[in-house]
C-alpha cells in the first residue's frame, strides 16, 4: 500500500512502478526476519544504517521496469545502497559522505580484491602479529602493572593517565629499550587501558606493512571495528559514553583475538560478496562533498537516487562524527587532523546554525507551520530545526541539477518530534522538491524493526524525560 495524494501526469513507467509498489502487502517493507549483516553489509557497524532489503527491493522493482545506468547516494554512510547497486549491476555508482570513516567503510565494501592476494596477506599478517606478540610479550604483560602500581596512576581518571597516556607509555618503552610509535591524541588513556594501547599499535604496525592499498584498507576496517570493542566505551552505544570506573578496572579485552575474529569474518564476507557481483566493471566513485553542493558529481548525470539522510542535526539525533572519533584518531587517515575529526558533526546537516531566518527560503508550508509553533515555545530549538531544513532545501535544489530527465529519487526518512511538534520530513521533502520541478509520485510507510539507533531521546532537554521519537519511516518517491 502506498500513499498517492496528488494528481500528476504520470508516464507509463511511473505507473508501472507505482502499481508494483502498490501491490505489495502492508508489512512488506518492515523486513521482520532480515539478517542485516549479510555479505559485506556486516563488516563494520555504523549508526542508522539503512537495512539492505530496502534498497535491494527498490532496485529490483525499478530495474524490472527499465534500465538505470547511474545511481547516487548523496548520504552514503557505510555504503549499504552502493553495495546493493553493485549487486544489481548498475554501471556507474556514486556515493558521497563528509565522514571519512563512512567513506573508508563504503570504499572497502565496494572494492573487489584479488582473493588469492587477500588470503596470502591474511596468513602473513596474522603470522607476523603472532611473532610480534612473542617478541614483546614481556612488555605487554608488564605495562599495566607499571602504570597502575609503579607509577601509582588511576587508569580510570581523566587527569594523569587519561590525558597523558602517550608520555607514560613512551617513558615505559624507553626504560625497556623498545621502540614502538604510540599514538598521541587527546584523552587516549581515558578511552583505552595501557596494555590495550600497546597491543593495538603492534597490530596496526603490521597492517601498515601491507603493500596493496585496497587490502590494507580492508584490514584497517577490521582494526577500526576492533578499536570500538576493546575501548572503554560502553557496549552498544553510538555516543561516547564510558564504562563505569569499576568496570574499566576489571576490563581485560583479548585484543589480538578480537581483531583476528573480525578479520576472518570480514574476509569470508568479502569473498562471498565478490562471487555474487556479476558486473565486475562497475565504476564506483565515493566523494567527500557537502551534499549541499556535490561539486564532484556531474550535472544532469544521475538516473536514480536512493538515500537516507540524517533525521536531524548530529547534536540532537545521531552523532556520526562522535561515533567515528576513536577509529579516526587511531587510523590517522590522510587529511584527518584532531581538529577536523572533532568538527565532523558540525559540518553535517544542520550543524551550521542559521541565525537570520528568512521566511521565504524554505519552500514548505508544512515546515513553516511547525517552525512557527516551535518558535513560540523555544526560540533556540526553533533555530536549530530551521538550520537543518535550510540545508535540506539546498540539498534538494542541488540534486535537482544532478539528476537527468525521467530519473527517480527514493528518500528514506523519519519524522522526528521536537517540542511536541512532529516534523513531517516526508511531506516537507515533497513540498520543497515541487519548487525545484521535481514531481512527487508516492510514499511508502514502513515500521522500523531492525534499524540500530536510539528510538528515544530527550528533545525536551529535561533530564530523564524521554519521548519515543521515531518508530516508522517513510520512503518518498520522486521523479524528474
Ligand atoms: C542515515 S546516515 C546514512 C546511512 C547509510 N544509508 C548506511 O547504510 O550506512 C546519514 C549520513 O549522512 C552523512 N551526512 C550528513 N550531512 C551531510 C552533508 N551535509 N553532506 C554529506 N554527508 C552528510 C552522515 O555523515 C551520515 O553518514
Architecture overview:
By secondary structure, this protein is α/β, with parallel strands linked by helices. It has two domains: 2-112 and 278-357 and 394-479, Vaccinia Virus protein VP39 (Rossmann fold), CATH 3.40.50.150; 115-271, no CATH class. 48% of the residues lie in helices and 12% in strands. It has 18 helices and twelve strands. It has helices spanning 12-22, 52-65, 80-87, 100-109, 115-135, 137-150, 158-175, 188-191, 194-208, 213-230, 245-250, 255-276, 320-331, 338-342, 344-347, 365-377, 379-402, 425-435; strands at 2-3, 70-73, 92-96, 283-287, 302-307, 403-414, 417-418, 421-422, 439-447, 456-457, 467-468, 472-479. Strands 1-9-12-6-5-2-3-4 form an eight-stranded mixed beta sheet, with helices on both faces. Strands 7-8 form a two-stranded antiparallel ribbon. The chain has a two-stranded antiparallel ribbon with strand order 10-11. Strand 2, helix 3 and strand 3 (92-96) form a beta-alpha-beta unit. The radius of gyration is 24 Å and the shape is globular. Bound molecules: S-adenosylmethionine (SAM). Residues 46, 48-50, 75, 77-78, 80-81, 96-99, 102, 290-292, 308-310, 320, 348-349 line the site of S-adenosylmethionine.
